[in-house]
């Protein structure tokens, strides 16, 4: 039962690999099979040509006839070679497209999967396994190709050797008669095939077991992830260089890297040592499998059943048959091994997109009159029993500037994630102009928002590409947005203007920008998008209160009549807003203007009093 399940799994994964390769490069299987057919034909034709040529020379045929034979057969061999080379070049021309398109499938999955999966640790484990094993999709595909080509080679070899195999020696009796008979051939063939299959099965069984154990070792997987993190995220990020040196973190990083990579090498090293011990009998079985074949050929030659050329042909045909059997068994074994690697890895591609994407188009309005409302919204993150939002009721009036404030962890950013449909409510609903937002087309709904998160990132692209989030942009609009975000002077100093590359990851002339400048570019990106609903989710948390207040008030003027939400744990930064919503423990604690909430003396009043001295010391009379 277990073997049936395993075979079924192998068949499913192999079919999946074929589908992925065919999707990436239509016709790849047909090209590879055509190449193998031509390669097999050329190989067997060469054996036939060699044996017949030797016999013609030994038998003393006229040189003229031999030369004609060479020219004709050589022409056929050349034609087969050219056809095989052409098909192979045709295939090689597709290799880059195959790899790129197959990789694109993985990239698209990572980019487009539901955001709910992005924050799930199991997703990162599956993604790591996918990165580690993705190349084995092609390896599994070639395992199938090897198996099919091995079968074809073995069958073709049998067909070619048959006329020689069933030829009896004249007047041979006793043991030599038996060796020269079909029964003798059958006996030797059975021994050779049995030893070949036994060798392959014996080897593949242990190879499969060792690789299976390694691939299911959670400790190995964890150490691989840790080592990859230190190499790629820490050592690979040159911006970490300052911290590593100033805080003397080199030894800490190296110890962790050595520990994780050392454990990884220990597990793999033990597996490979075990594999070498288990594979020791394999060469012996391989030698034992070849001896009967050569013995049979020699005895048949002695008995007079075969000529000199036919002896060579017989041995070479028999070698092709054995190679075919080996290729078939090794291909099957390779598929079983690769399935162990890919079974878990392909689960990443199978992570379902469960979010309902909606069908209703969002209304295109020139007046930006979009009204959003939370109706008794409850939310808890996947695999958690604790509600982050509890019974939230909230409405944004058209053109309103609202501040969302509260202590860290009160649910402010989670509320924005729900508003932007990065998550859907566990209970309750969110509406846009009275309609549940889940009913709208997902991409159109997302286009309504320009959000600057606290951890918004910029990439090693040009300034323009970062602002426009595209390589097709309006240069004048980009410049205008950068200037409106307060970075015009810095842009003026950049040698290549908006074409200047950020950071030095790929461009030695790239510029390094400060945290404040990076946030201003993120603001410029939000302006460029021109969405009717603007959200600033603590994007200036790392700045001092004066700088934060300056950016918020400046951006408030840029927003104009658009609906905007400003999230901050610094209450003073959002005093200019029409209304302030105070969150506490996942609920709406208070709503009102700054003066109203301070006079009320509730949650907001206590927070304000706690922060007031800090503001006064930091910013003087700015907030008086």
Notes on the structure:
By secondary structure, the chain is of the alpha/beta class. It contains 22 helices and 10 strands. The chain has helices at residues 2-24, 28-58, 63-112, 115-118, 121-133, 136-165, 174-180, 182-215, 218-235, 241-246, 250-278, 281-303, 308-349, 412-419, 442-446, 463-468, 475-484, 488-493, 515-529, 545-559, 594-600, 603-619, and strands at residues 372-379, 389-396, 401-405, 427-432, 435-436, 449-453, 533-537, 563-568, 579-584, 587-592. The strands form 2 sheets. Strands 6-7-8-3-9-10 form a 6-stranded mixed beta sheet, sandwiched between helices. A 4-stranded antiparallel beta sheet has the order 2-1-4-5, covered by helices on one side. Helix 2 packs parallel to helix 6. The longest helix is centred in the first third of the chain and has 50 residues, at 63-112. The radius of gyration is 36 Å and the shape is elongated. The N and C termini lie far apart (79 Å).
Question: Any chance you could write out the topology, listing elements then pairs?
Answer:
Layout: H1 2-24, H2 28-58, H3 63-112, H4 115-118, H5 121-133, H6 136-165, H7 174-180, H8 182-215, H9 218-235, H10 241-246, H11 250-278, H12 281-303, H13 308-349, E1 372-379, E2 389-396, E3 401-405, H14 412-419, E4 427-432, E5 435-436, H15 442-446, E6 449-453, H16 463-468, H17 475-484, H18 488-493, H19 515-529, E7 533-537, H20 545-559, E8 563-568, E9 579-584, E10 587-592, H21 594-600, H22 603-619
Parallel strand pairs: 3-8, 3-9, 6-7, 7-8
Antiparallel strand pairs: 1-2, 1-4, 4-5, 9-10
